[in-house]
Amino acid sequence: MTIHPGEDGIAFRHGGTRIPAAPDAVTGTRRNTTLGDVATVEHIMSAFAGVEITDAEVEVSCPELPALDGSAAGFVAALDAVEELTPTEIALPDREVVVSDNDAWIRVQPGTGQWTYSYECFGVTQTVKCVMPDDYLTGVSRARTIAHAHEVQALLDSGIGQGLDIGSVVLIGTDGYGNEPRYPDEPARHKLLDLAGDLYLAGIPARCLDVTAHRSGHTAGVRMAALLASSRCP
Which segments show compositional bias classed as Basic and acidic residues (predicted)? Predict the structure, then answer.
């Protein structure tokens, strides 16, 4: 994978095809976010959001982005050579926008980067609050992919998450972590990391939004990005 400076938003190149990082280019949200034929773009999109990169071309030679250590930290470290936030006219929603699916939901409104995510783990609700992008590097980017102990082999057998190992996931057992977490609430922090990547498909800087979410996944995140990117905000 090679990251090049871009001139017209963020896009991925694979097999000679340019795939814009936009909600209408999403082709899958099962366990990851897939753009065209490039899977697992959410971590690098989160890194772009966290360090405020608006223009980049990501050239890939295989149909899934590298897992690295299961977080966005490696992508953040690779972005030093890419230009940062370009001042542009940004269309923001003019009211609160909500996406819900049973007891999972996302609420977004124009704001100052106040992000909150809650996630139930071990029978306890973990709640993470951060200011984006200020808290991203230390409080979000290092949180690893969540893996339930009984699902690890099934994930690998399905072809999802190639390159992952026990050190690149936060392993969740029936009554506690199966390995050493990087944060006491690492699962909630990784879910916020994923959400930041999915919402950045709308092209709106994280600092311009106040976001509150509970148990949402990639499908809800992409739905919200589509609403934010369009004029169909209810």
Answer: 1-11
d(CA 9, CA 7): 6
| Alpha helices, DSSP H, located in 134-202 | 136-139, 152-158, 186-199
Q: Where exactly are the structural domains of the chain?
A: 2-229
Q: What residues are annotated to the active site?
A: 218
8-state DSSP, 40:
-
* CATH number, span 2-229: 3.30.1700.10
* Residue type for position 90: I
**How many angstroms separate the first and last alpha carbons of the chain?**
38
Per-residue tokens: 46: 């989160």
CA atoms within 13 A on the CB side of 35: 27
CA distance 230 to 212: 20
pTM recorded for the entire structure: 0.92
Tokens of 74: 């490696």
